[in-house]
Amino acid sequence: MKGRSGPTGVVTTHQASVQLEHAEQRRGRQSSSGRHSMFQRQLRRGRLTVTIAGLAIAFLVSVFFVSYGSKLYENWREHRLLHQATTLLQEGKLSKAAQMAQEVARRHTDSLAALSILADTAERQNLEEAVAWRERIAQLLPKDPESQLNLASAALRFGKLDLAREALNRVSPRDRDSAAFHVVAGWLASAEGNFAEQEEQFAAAVKEEPKNDLYQFNLAALQIRSKDAEKSKNARDTLERLITIAPYRTGALRALLNDAVEGNDRTAADSFAQQLQMSPEVTFGDYLLCLNFYRKLDEKKFRQLLEKVKPFATLNASDLASLIEWMNQNGLAGDVVKWVDKLPPTRLSSPPASVAVADAYATVKNWSHLKRWTRSGNWGDAEYLRLAYDAIAERHLRSGKDSSANSAFETLWQSADELSRSEPERELMLARLARKSQLESQAEELWVRVEENPTMRREALDNLRQIYRAGSETTKLYAVLQRLHESSPNEAPITADLARLGLNLEQNVERSHQLAKEAYDRAPNEVNCAVTYAFSLHRLARNAGALAIIQSLLPEQLHDAHAAVYVALVLVEGNELEGAKDYIGAAENGKLYPEEKKLLEEAKTKLIAVSAISSPTEPPPPSGTPPL
């Protein structure tokens, strides 16, 4: 039968089917096993991926929280440090407050809070680094007027006038009407020696805040010396009111006492002097102020007070030096020379007293005593002054004897000069001494160096101006006036002098005419300004206007030799011949610059020409008529 397997080994159909089924089962089991293995592999891969993703997310989350948490901590710590610094600042623990603020500033260089604390602590300790902190704040807030004013104030405190001016210039015009701006601008003007500008600024501050006693005091202390009777009276009334207010009492009494002394009001001066001496804030300088009063108005009381002050002064080296200096400046150097012989040498052997004694000997021209006083010893930081006084004594003692005298002076003075170099305070003191001792060339050299320091610039320029005026060195004088005008552009008398000299020297002629008008517009009643503008109009062929200005001034104001030259020119041109002759005479009696001498000759020549035209020669008598 088919399908059956016989003994010969043929496979039957049933067997084949069973074998096929077993084979399929085996294949199925193998296939299932493969699929299971593949699933297991896929599952393992998926779990790994999830694990890796989880780890990545966990890492990112941890990084986020660490970073954010760190920033939170830093912010918390910064706020905590600033809070502690502010508390310490309020408690007056300045060094600790600055230390904490410094830590914040190191981490955050633009932290305004930290920089403000650093600036405040430095200012309260009178440290110059306050300027750097204020400058940093002003850089971060360039459009904030308060930041610029704070910088200007700090710069003024430490003598950085140029920086103060730059800060004020950065305040926008719309923010310049505040009282604070006017006050800072006023103190800058004062530091520059421009007292007219200072008064204007202080008056503007009072106008903005009329009830502010500090602003009232600042203005009154200036205006009490005004030539304007109304201004001085109002200032006097203000200061008398401020006597009753503790913070201003002593300052008001000082100003009122000075005013009473200058006005020879003996009763008022005596009252103010008594009140000042009883004031809890009285200083040794106030006693000197009282001496000023009694010396002028009551010789007996003056001598009594002086004898009381002398032993008090010997208790303090600085007070002793101040009293000797005051006596030297008030014609009592002879008394000083007698008095110091009675004092213990130890009180006088070192500065500042030793310097004041040397000045007394120089003032009375006792050169031998001055030489002995400065011959030996060491004056410490004032050693340069010992050498300078020694040089002056040597110069006078050996004057005219031989050439070695001048050589000895030069050697000593050079030594003094070398010790003062690059030391602004020393250069200033030495320059003052050279000027006082009429050492003009040495003084000029020193003042040129002193001018480099902003706080001393005005004094240096004023002294150079005097030196060049005395020597009629008009080219150098013009350069100094230019620098004075640059540092104080609103000071009308300086502007006028610069304009007039510019016209005489034919330097910057167009600009000089402009400056002449600016000065006159600013101060039409100031004689120099009026005369200069009249001269400018005269040179512009507008003599009618010039004549009107001259005729508006009081004649006694115009007889200074320098002014008289220009007045004469204008009067001659205006055919005011008699008046012109008067002013020509006044000019001839004074010392003029070379350029002004030429103008005077021009006026005289014009006067002769105009006189000849006005008074023609009488015609000869008719023939046969005898002459008279």
Question: What's the quick description here?
Answer:
This protein has 628 residues and is an all-alpha fold. The protein has 32 helices and no strands.
Overview of this structure, please?
76% of the residues lie in helices and 0% in strands. The protein contains 32 helices and no strands. The protein has helices at 13-90, 94-107, 112-124, 129-140, 145-157, 161-169, 179-191, 195-208, 213-223, 229-242, 246-262, 266-278, 284-297, 299-313, 317-329, 333-340, 345-348, 353-363, 367-374, 383-397, 403-420, 424-436, 440-450, 457-470, 474-487, 492-505, 509-522, 527-539, 543-551, 561-573, 577-588, 594-614.
What would the average pLDDT be, to the nearest integer?
84
Approximately what portion of the residues adopt beta-strand conformation?
Answer: under 5%
Helix content: over 70%
Radius of gyration: 44 Å
Number of helices: 32
User: In terms of structural class, how would the helical and strand content be classed?
Assistant: mainly alpha
Tally of extended strands?
0
List low-confidence stretches. Answer: 1-14, 63-70, 623-628
The main sheet comes to:
none
Shape: globular
Topology, pairings included?
Layout: H1 13-90, H2 94-107, H3 112-124, H4 129-140, H5 145-157, H6 161-169, H7 179-191, H8 195-208, H9 213-223, H10 229-242, H11 246-262, H12 266-278, H13 284-297, H14 299-313, H15 317-329, H16 333-340, H17 345-348, H18 353-363, H19 367-374, H20 383-397, H21 403-420, H22 424-436, H23 440-450, H24 457-470, H25 474-487, H26 492-505, H27 509-522, H28 527-539, H29 543-551, H30 561-573, H31 577-588, H32 594-614
Helix pairs in contact: 1-2, 1-3, 2-3, 3-4, 4-5, 5-6, 5-7, 6-7, 7-8, 8-9, 9-10, 10-11, 11-12, 11-13, 12-13, 13-14, 15-16, 15-18, 16-18, 18-19, 18-20, 19-20, 20-21, 21-22, 22-23, 23-24, 24-25, 25-26, 26-27, 26-28, 27-28, 28-29, 28-30, 29-30, 30-31, 30-32, 31-32
